[in-house]
Amino acid sequence: MKITWLASYPRSGNTYLRTILFNCFGIKTASIYPKDLGGNKILENFVGHIEHNQNKTITFQKGSIPIIKTHKLNQDDNRTIYIIRDGRAASVSLWNFYGKKIPIKDIILGNHRFGTWKDHLISWNPLKRPNTLLIKYEDILCNFEYVLNSIETFLEIKVLSKKLPSRDTVATFDGRWVRSKTDWKEKISSEELNLFNKINYPVLKEFGYE
């Protein structure tokens, strides 16, 4: 069975969606990145993470859908769930993830391994890409039932549970990959916000983040 990608720009809810797939559908998922969750075994158990084998292969559960997380640009036509989050929030979260060692301005400009928010969206083009389910991070928070139904239909699987560990509970065991809720608007300057909007406005508008 071909890989199903779980694709997103960093800090857009990929780990959260993996947690949903595990807790609500019983599907464990992997990542293209070894030690993706920093080797945190408690977090791996919450997420349903499958770590790489020593020979760099990945062993999925028998009969399970092979789903792999990626932050790379689109490279094939495999079935994909694409998670999008307001790029301003994702940029501030990525700045925090890097321990604030990379200035927010450089995050916005794409002066890091993942490039700009806009370029990632343009590469995957989730509104028009065939065999692709677009999920908004904001819908996970505010329209959870809709998200579950969308995944159920797209992957042709049944919801097993609608219960999730709370974000704050998971954050107490991590704090980096999963953090307690913060307001990105309090962390970004007007100059940085204007720069982000200048670079990304057409894509922000296309996806309803004006």
UniProtKB/TrEMBL annotation:
Family in the record: Belongs to the sulfotransferase 1 family.
Domain (Sulfotransferase) ranges: 4-164
A molecular-function term among this protein's GO annotations: sulfotransferase activity
Record InterPro entries: P-loop_NTPase, Sulfotransferase_dom
Keywords, sorted A to Z: Transferase
Keyword Transferase applies: yes
Superkingdom, taxonomy of origin: Bacteria
Keyword Transferase belongs to the record: yes
Pfam families associated with the record: Sulfotransfer_1
Protein name as annotated: Sulfotransferase family protein
